[in-house]
Amino acid sequence: MTPALMQQGNLLLQLYIQPKASRDQIVGLHGEEIKIAITAPPVDGKANAHLTKYLSKAFKVPKGDIEILKGQMGRHKQVKIVAPKLIPDAIQHLL
């Protein structure tokens, strides 16, 4: 599967998450996944909540339009973004 895929107006992303980073950013490709660094620690769902908030800002959608389909407890995640209003350049070139 590709790291980024548009499907019926929604965006499916295969992500590799690096928690406790110095800043939030889309790093680039990490094998078959998109690496995203976030500042939150992987404790009590904090990283998932932070990731959702970061992605909602990056793609200009409400937090409710971001769904973690797979990988709730791990670094490897599959995320669905419903009808993104904006696609960051780092993701755009993968489509």
Automatic annotation (TrEMBL):
InterPro entries: DUF167, YggU-like_sf
GO cellular component, one term: cytoplasm
A matching Pfam family: DUF167
Membrane-spanning ranges: none
PANTHER family associated with the record: UPF0235 PROTEIN C15ORF40 (PTHR13420:SF7)
Stated family: Belongs to the UPF0235 family.
NCBIfam families in the record: DUF167 family protein, PRK05090.1
Name by which UniProt lists this protein: UPF0235 protein L2740_10475
Record lineage: Bacteria, Pseudomonadati, Pseudomonadota, Gammaproteobacteria, Alteromonadales
Gene: yggU
